[in-house]
Amino acid sequence: MTKYILSLDQGTTSSRGIIFNKQGEIVSVESQEFKQIFPQPGWVEHDANEIWLSQLSVAKMALVKAQITAEEIAAIGITNQRETTVVWNIETGIPIYNAIVWQDRRTSFIIDELKQKGLAEKFKLKTGLVLDAYFSGTKLKWILDNVPNSRNLAKSGKLAFGTVDSWLIWNLTNKRNHVTDESNASRTLLFNIHTGCWDQELLDILDIPREMLPEVKPSSGIIGEASSGLFGSRIPIAGVAGDQQAATFGNLCLSPGMIKNTYGTGCFLLMNTGEQALPSKNNLLTTIGWNVNNVRQYCLEGSVFIGGGITQWVRDGLKFIDNSPEIEKLATSVKDNGGIYLVPAFSGLGAPHWDQYARGTIFGITRGTTDAHIARAALEAIAFQVNDLVKAMEADSNKQLSTLRVDGGACKNNFLMQFQADILNVAVERPKCLELTALGAAYLAGIAVGFWQNVNELHSITKLDKRFEPNMSPSVRQELLDYWHEATSRSKNWIRK
Ligand code: ADP
Q: pLDDT band for position 497 (50/70/90)?
């Protein structure tokens, strides 16, 4: 009798193993941080072996902690930091280079060359992505260009490329399965999101041998088995999705028009656009959400660079508070923002503004301004930025948001959630379980093996923590938004090019 799903949540700073029961509740969690390697300014790497070993270790520890044996686990679901690129030798199992992390900017010059050749539109049409060093394709090209003889080895089928999901599955299955899922493949700049295949023309442009690519599988379905040597008996691996897609699935944004926002250090918004891959006119990304039961659903995606991270600045930079949750008390000690608007363009502005020369600014300071006004303006800025992205998604999709679903560390802040509902003028729903990334991977795995019968059952077990109803007069909302947009435009184009 299987009673649980094991989720492997392989993030940028830590690996987590989480066990869920049939009610979608957490039974145990284990987590381990690993090394961040910064060889040069702008370069970020991970040791791929450390990723694997930390992930294996937390999975085993989670089982031990909950006193559960592998026989009681119905399936494993995997979710992962996206775009991070691993290349390994399939005979030795040894990576030929450190994993190049999504944040790494070393391939910006390759991106510039591609843009100069006028290829941005081609990549966008086929992959849904903007040309940026963020994605895997140019990182993979860089490894092949810089590790001696690697391209030849790859052509002769001796090397494998994978995103982190792929690397974990290869190790979990004792080197048997070299696979990835569609959501992860759609972040590589190599995958045609319309045909669901690796795109030969794009592979040729980046000079990437097809032989090294993983087979692309649906996000839900048995794609291999964790070997018995690891956990004591074999466990099917039945769900895989990149972290943001998994969080969207975990938040049950399963029909067109539904949006989730993750309030982490940055914010990630994804809107489900159903079976339609909508091209964005507002510089958002078009990406595959997941493929479940042979139905591929797409999402529009946008991100805010500084979300909850602004709280860290209020804590560590301004030293107004000792810990992140304290910001709520400080911000609500004043009745309003006192005319203060803070644009957290600390490293420029992302979608829909896209200005790398913008910088952080605080407007409206008077003799009466206090730390509390600034703390309040900081939280309000998170909600304003999310509002701007939601509006861009609504414009691209011609759909009105009806409810915003949320997760991530900063969504515990009640003031922020209420203000978000007020500014958007839609309800904000915060689920009880905030581990939605891991839960999404568990759901994908669980429905594949019949642990949960279908998505209706998932809806029935989802528990809401709190629903925040909008409660702000239209005139107040408009005034706040007008000032915010004015502040944003004045923060633009600040540093000299
Ligand atoms: P990540 O996964 O990006 O590391 P988390 O989802 O753990 O981030 O969210 C942590 C972020 O949220 C931090 O930047 C932290 O400062 C912020 N944060 C945490 N709790 C609160 C709170 N109650 N109010 C506002 N911000 C918060």
A: low
Provide the whole-model pTM. 0.90
**Does ligand 1 have an atom closer than 6 angstroms to the CB of 265?**
yes
- Hey, what long-range contacts does 30-34 have (CB within 8 A, 24 or more apart)? 30/58, 30/59, 30/61, 30/62, 30/65, 31/58, 32/57, 32/58
Please state, in angstroms and rounded to a whole number, the distance separating the CA atoms of residues 479 and 218: 46
- Assess whether the C-beta atom of 344 lies below 6 angstroms from ligand 1: no
Give me the residues paired with residue 159 across strands.
Answer: 89
Say if 77 falls within a structural domain. Answer: yes
Query: What total number of domains does the chain contain?
Result: 1
Q: Which atom of ligand 1 is nearest to the CA of 13?
A: 4
Asked, for residue 42, whether it belongs to a domain, the answer is yes
Over residues 34-51, the mean pLDDT reads 92
Please work out whether the CB of residue 309 comes within 6 Å of at least one atom of ligand 1.
yes
Residues 420-434 have pLDDT tens digits of: 999 999 999 999 988
- Assess if residue 399 is contained within a domain: no
**Minimal-distance CA residue to ligand 1 atom 17:** 308
Q: Residue 99: which domain range?
A: 4-244
What CATH number did the domain enclosing 219 receive? 3.30.420.40
Answer whether residue 240 is part of any domain.
yes
Q: What is the pLDDT of residue 495?
A: 85
